[in-house]
Amino acid sequence: MNSQHPDFAASEAQWQRFRTSRNAALASDYGWLTLTSFQWLAAEPSAVDLAPGLWSADGTTASLRAAAGDGLTVVDSGAVVDGTITIELADEESHLWVQYGGDDGSRVRVELAKRAGQYAIRTRDSTSPVFTEFTAVPTYAFNADWVIMAHFTRYAEPQDIPIKTANPLVGGIHRSAGELAFHVPGIKHEIRLQAEQDDLGTLNVTFHDATNGDSTDSWRRVSTARPRPDGTVILDFNRAINYPSAFTPFGTCPMPVKNNSLAVRVEAGEKRTAE
Prior knowledge:
Blueprint: H1 8-26, E1 35-40, E2 46-48, E3 51-57, E4 62-66, E5 73-74, E6 83-87, E7 94-100, E8 108-115, E9 118-125, H2 129-132, E10 147-164, E11 171-182, E12 191-197, E13 203-209, E14 220-224, E15 232-236, E16 241-242, E17 261-262
Parallel strand pairs: 13-17
Antiparallel strand pairs: 1-9, 2-3, 3-4, 4-6, 5-7, 7-8, 8-9, 10-11, 10-15, 11-12, 12-13, 13-14, 14-16
C-alpha cells in the first residue's frame, strides 16, 4: 500500500488519531515524564533523595517513618503520615504511595515498586521540565510500506526468557507466547520475532533495528490486535513506540530478547527524543 492507494488516507488518519492519544497519555499527570529518581530501599531506616522521611524494607514489607511536619500524606486516603506506615506489594507490582510539596501537598508523588524481591521508590514530580516542556514525541511520517501482514505461531507453552532491562541492576523476564513471521522492505528472507501476549490477546513485540542509536532510541515496542483464527495479524511499525526509558533514566524497561532484531532501518514510528 502506498500514498496512491485508496486506503492510504484512511490509514494515515487512523494513525494520526493514534498519535494524538499517545501524546495525551504521555502528558498525563504523574506519568512517565515526571520521574526524577529511582532508589533501592535499605534494610535500616534511611534518608533518601528528593523525599522526606526515613525509608526501609525487608523482603516482604516496606516502611516509612515520618513526622507530621514532613508534609507527607497517603495518596489513597489523604491521611497525614505521623509515625510509621507499612505496605506490602507483590513482585513486579507498583503503587503510588505518598505525596508531598507544592501548594496542595501533591507536587511530588512517591511510587513504591517491588522488583526481583527488592523494594525501590521512584519520585514523580509534576514540575519536572521533561514533563512541563513536553509537546509531542517526534516520529517518522506515516509510511504504508511498514503496515505488514504477519503470521503468529503460538508455542505449545509460553517460554520464560531472562532478559536485561534499562537499569543494569534490574533483571526481567520475557514470557514469549510465540513467534511472528513476516517479510519487510529491503530484506528477502523471512523475519521471525518473539512476542508476548496479554490477557486480551494483544501481541507485544520489543525489537531492535538499524535505526537504533541514530534516529531512534536503543529499542522500541510495537503492539498488534489479537491474531485472527488463521494466525494472521497486521503488524504496523508506524505504531512503534519508545519505552519510558527513552524519556527518563529512571525506567526499568525490558530489553528485547536475543534475536529480536531487524537488520534493516525501520523508518517508521517514534524517533528518539531531543537531548
